[in-house]
Each structure stands twice: as structure tokens, then as C-alpha cells.
Amino acid sequence: MVTQVKQVTQVTQQSVLSLAKQGDPDAIATLINQVVSKKGLTAIAKTKGNCLHIVLVADRVPNQASCVRFVYDGIARLNPKYIDSVRIYGRRTDQKWPTWTELLELQQPDSTSTTSPTVPLSPTADPHPKHKPVKIKTKYRKKIPLLLLGSICWVLVAAVGFVVRAKMDSQAPTTPQPATPAQEQALETSAKLQPLPKTNQKIGTVPPPPIKSPLSSPAANKPAANTSPKLPSLPIKTQPQPSVQPNSVAAPIQNLPAIPTTEPPSINAATTITIKAVGDIVPGSNFPNNRLPSNVKQLFQNVKPYLQGADILFGNFESTLTNYPRTSKDTSRAMVHAFRNPPTYANLLKETGFDVLSVANNHSFDFSTVGFADTMKNIQNAGMTPVGKKNQIAYMNVKNIRIGFIAFSHLPLHNSVNDIASAKALVLEAKKNADVVVISFHAGAEGTGAMHVKNRQENFYGENRGNVLLFSRTMIDNGADLVLGHGPHVARAMELYKGKLIAYSLGNFVGYKSLSTWGALGQSLILEVQVNPEGDFVSGRIIPVQLDRRGIPYPDKQFRSVHLIRNLTKIDFPNTPLKIDSNGKISKLGVRD
Fold it and tell me: Is 24 exposed, middle or buried (0-12, 13-18, 19+ CB in 10 A)?
């Protein structure tokens, strides 16, 4: 009878292992829990796309370095199918949001190889010779807790049954103790596991302790300092990180026993959010006549590589995505234009990399409320977030930091920069529900005669285009963290106000046969900004762009927009604690209101 029970148990364990290798999150969580449950930890796993999300929950904050190494070693040896990356969360039982998170990118095996890394069922079953893992250099010299020994064995546990599990548990004391080099070597030799596949790890807040591993050194990824003006290196395109709220994975686990752990520093202490933003986008128009490019991909192909690498890519879409035939404007009048693009252009914008598009501008209602509703719907259906509907606050999660977007224009159809009281109420509401609040506004007079920022109302063709300086600072006074301006069709100055960045105008970005590119009107940019979890400005960069005579952007090796914005900032905000160097790098000189 005992033999039959053991056989059934082994079959069950083999089934769990088989499912785990197929990428089944429940099976993977079961394997992890067989090891960590004795330590007061509970693992919850879920997949979204090709990313595996693992939440480690305990009464006290799980030690990040230990948990990351534990999960990394096990997943690397398990090599589950269809899993390209693993995001690990550490959360207390009584908390809704995790204290820390870290993303590990898993390098897929070479498709030309006839073998794939697997976990042998016993030391004698390994047909491959043992290779010594490559050592890495790092400044972090903390020794490995004995708890990490389980990370090497948790896949083997499922393969050989509860006997190995019991043996391993008996070796792990309640309080983790540093493992001696002899212990590490003995375990490594007895297991005879294959060397781990190389990975590209994205470090979250605290780097894992160094062990014999092919993880890349953080120092190796440090960019070299620029010595002369040059375009920034192209970002490496990575798989988009899905936004997942950890509490949606499963219900919180209650009454877990405490585990000895070292509390990490402040939540997401080293985390920054990278936002890239561009100005006005008019990708041609098919009204009143056809001014669409024959090859739509040429609109962004020159600058698309420079748009990658951000957590959020933002732009102002100053057209409509609709087939509605009737415009609400009298286009027979001078200086009155109506822009319309086929709904399929939404897919082009998504493929280019955009995440958030503002439609709060003076062209979003060119084809009445029908065209506006179509535009919002088509942007959303393409997988992006439209923002610009009156009283709308758009929320999203990035690196477990909640971001709120609010878009304004000078028109009462949208949230208006001229209605300061309502704007204050909106930003106060957003700050209650978000960690970082980003404001977009489409306001200010237009053209090269309106390049300077002044603390007064701006008028253009009889319209009150708002006091953008008063509006921007008021938004920050009430909780906003980043202000992105557009509308003047020319770049304007930037300032650092109470530690928050204001970009008063990002200029034109795409204006195919629709926007003037003469002189400064054709000098554009991609603004890259890093903010911390509190929304404070950390660093930034102006990536210079020039529009050709058709309104198509390309990288500007002459850095014209950098020189323009530097000069405007020195003139309009001579005392702002912001420095823009000749390479376009933006840094803060100090903390000053």
C-alpha cells in the first residue's frame, strides 16, 4: 500500500513537472510552494502573453535579492515553453501593492540547436558534460543565504518526489544562514545541472547577490559619456511589459507565519519611469482632397528607432480617425482646416510604438461628435489609450506605479486650460488615485512669432488660447508631476518648477502636406524624461528631429531644436534649475521652487 502511494505521488509530481515545462503557471507555483512554504512564503503565478508573473507573499516583505535568485535559478533550469520573461513581485500579506518588483528577460535557446536545456531526473541521467558557469564581477558582495540552495533544487523536487523534498527541507534552518563555499560547491557537484542559459536582466531596485551565473553585470550596461554632440544611441527594442496589478492574480493570502528577512529600502527606491513624448501629429488627410502618402510607413520610419525604449510613448494626434463624410467646419474660410485619416491609421500609430495619444486639440471635432467618438474608439481598439474627453482621467500601471493622464485644450469641448477651477479639481482627483500625474495641454498662440512663454493670456485669431504658464504651474501646485505642452507648432522653452518638468511646447512632429515646416516650424524633438515614483524629475534628453518639406521627420544631426530650446529656456526662465547641454541632455542643477 505504501509503495502504491509513493508511486501515485511520483506520477503526480511528474505531471506537475510536465505541466510546468509547458509554462503552466499553476504548476510552476506548485513547484515553488513545495520549497518556500516552510519559510512562510506563498507563491502565486499567472501568465499574461509571454510573461510569467510570480507574486511572493508573506507576513513580512520577502527579501528581494534572495527571492530573485531563487526564482531565476529554478526558471532557468525548468526552461518553460512560451515564457520570454518573468516579473517577480514581493508583497506583504496585509498590503494591496507589492513593495518591490523585478523583471528578468529570458534569452530563448538557439533555434538551430538540436538540444534544449532540461532538468535531469537524476545525476546519472545527464548526458552532457558539466560546464563551469561564468563568474561575473559586481560591486555587491553579500553572501548567499542558505535559502537560495532551494532555488537550485526546486525543479528536482518535483521530479524525484517528496523524499528529496523532505531531505531538502530538513537541511534548511528556520533562520537563513550564509552558505559556505564548500556547501555551494558540494550541492552544485551533486546536482550536476546544466549551466544556466544567458539572460538579459532588467534590474529593479536591489541587484541580486553575485553568484556563479551568466547574469550580465550592471556596470557593463552603463553608457559611456558623450564628449561631442551626437544623436543618442538607439534603444534596444524589447518585448512590451504587460501591465498587471498583482492583487488581480489571486486573493491575498492571510495568516502566513513570519519569515526572517531584511526589509528593503523605500518602495521602488531606484525605479524610474521613462516617458517619451512628441508634439503634433497630422499624418496627411483625405479631406477635402487626398493628401495621404502612398506608403504610410514612410511617415515614421526615419525616427521609429528613436521612439522605442520608453515605458510610455505619448503624442498629440491632431487629426481624426473616421470615415464620417461631413465636416463641422467651414473650410471655405481662410486658415480653417479639417483633417481626416482612415481608421486604419490607428494601427500605424500602434506599430510605431505609441501608448497614449491626446485628442484634446482644435481638430478632434473636425467631423463633429461622430468623428470624435470614432477617433477615440479606433485608438482604443488598436491597443492604445486615448485621452482628451471632457472630465476624463486615463490610468495605467507601469512598473507597479500608477500613472494618470489628463489632456486639456483651450476649447470648452475638452477639459479647458481657461477653466482653472475645474482643472484643479481634476488633477486633485487624479492624485488621489495615481502615484504620478501627467498633464497634456494644447494651447498658446501659434507660429514663430509665439515662441516665447509669457505669464499672460495668449490670443490667436480671436481665440483665447490661455495663459499656459499660469495653467502649468497651477497644475503642479495641485499635484501634477509632468506637463507636456503642444499647440504653437513650434518648440518652446522648458522649466523645472518645484522639482517637476514643464515642456511648454513640443512643436510639430508629423505634418504630411498639412503643416508648415518653414524655419523653426520644422525643428522638432522627441522628449525623453525620467521621473521617480513620486513624479519628481530625474533626468531627460532632447532627441533632435527635423521635418522635411513634406512634413516627414528625420533625425537632425545639426541639433537645431536643441540649440533652439536651450536659448529659449535661458531667455524665458533664466533662473530655472535646469541645464540643457549641447547633446540635448537635460539635468537639474538643484532643488528650487
Answer: middle
244-251 contacts at long range (C-beta below 8 A, 24 or more positions apart)? 244/46, 244/48, 244/53, 244/87, 244/397, 245/97, 245/397, 246/53, 246/55, 246/89, 246/91, 246/97, 246/98, 246/400, 247/96, 247/97, 249/44, 249/45, 249/46, 249/53, 249/55, 250/44, 250/46, 250/55
Rounded-to-integer distance, Cα 337 and Cα 443, Å: 17
Domains of the chain are 2-109+118-219+236-248 (no CATH), 273-588 (3.60.21.10)
Q: Are 561 and 544 contacting, i.e. CB atoms less than 8 angstroms apart?
A: yes
Strand, coil or helix: 358: strand
Under 8 Å between Cβ of 484 and 439: yes
For the chain, the 3-state helix, strand and coil shares in percent, each to the nearest 5, are 30, 25, 50
Q: What is the pTM of this model?
A: 0.59
Question: Residue 340: which residues within 8 A CB-CB, separation 6 or more?
Answer: 285, 286, 287, 319, 320, 322, 324, 327, 366, 367, 371
* Cis peptide bond prior to 288, omega within 30° of 0: yes
> In this predicted model, what pLDDT tens digit does every residue of 146-203 receive, in sequence order?
444 454 455 444 444 433 344 434 333 333 333 444 443 433 333 333 333 333 333 3
Quick one: average pLDDT of 464-490?
Answer: 99
Question: How far are the Cα atoms of 10, 106, 533 from residue 7, in angstroms, in the given order?
Answer: 5, 34, 52
Measured CA to CA, the distance from residue 290 to residue 504 in angstroms comes to 33
